[in-house]
Request: fold
Amino acid sequence: MKNMLFKSLVIVIAACAFSACKKGYPDTVPDNITTLKDIFTNRAMTEQWLARCYNNIPDLWDQPYNNTPERSDRRTGLCLGNTGINSGAITADNASPNTWNSYYQTIRYCAIFLKNADQNKEILDQPEGAQLLTQYKAEARFLRAYYYWLLMKQYGPVVLMGEEPKESSDNFQLPRSPWDECVAYVIAEMDKAYPDVPVVHLAPNTGAEDMSQTGRITKPVIAAVKSQVLLFHASPLFNGNTDMSDFKNKDGAQLFNQTYDKERWKRAADAAMDVIKMNRWELYKVADANPFTAAYLACRNVYFDGYLKEGIWLRTNTAYGTWERHVCPRSSNGNAGTV
Reply:
């Protein structure tokens, strides 16, 4: 029995040694591993990758868990302990949300899509497939710029990663780019994407708006976001803010322009007018003989059906229930009321 076990062990060791000596054996990729080539030669998988680029768009109704930068210090939804914004206790360490990693991951997803999407012949062979692929790439290009913009609203000047997606072996110890350079890049990318997306997504063979495509990038979405970028850029925080004169990279590079430029306001106003001239929205109003009641109902009902008139970039589903709960007045035991 011992001899048999010994011989079996020798055979196993010999087999392992033989396998290890085969040229390139350690580099063998298992048959069940999906590669980028598999993804970007298959239409469904390519479209799934593009959908992944949409996944990190924040839901501003999801409050207060994600603590989006747009939250207000006048909100009463503070019953879950997120009181730092009101008490002035927010620091670089406890600020929420920490989106730096997740947004940069999605920026990389978008860059990979832009680099590889053209090899998808399944899409190109469809009727008007080349146009569809161009649209997909424009969506990914805008989304990449949009995630940079979200980072900029939260962190100020950020690191611009360039066109090529980085490899894991690359050097990621990169300096921030100056604010003006970040804005110029984001605007240029949005301008590049703008011509290749539709004004509205239409259902095939109907000419009617395809509601299943709600949330997909359109010309009005790009124009509206670009208007917001330029408005921030013109504001005193970023336009000649000498209080930020010591905000520099380690090499001494100035991250905030110290010279006020009134032309930024003109550019922001022009961008806002471009959105208005699209004539796709109107201010939601409720008629009532009592002006106070009319104002109150208009404010309340905008969340029920007014969004159909005012909404620019809508979602098919939201976490609005958390907003309803967390902005209610506190009950006697200190928790948010329920609705």
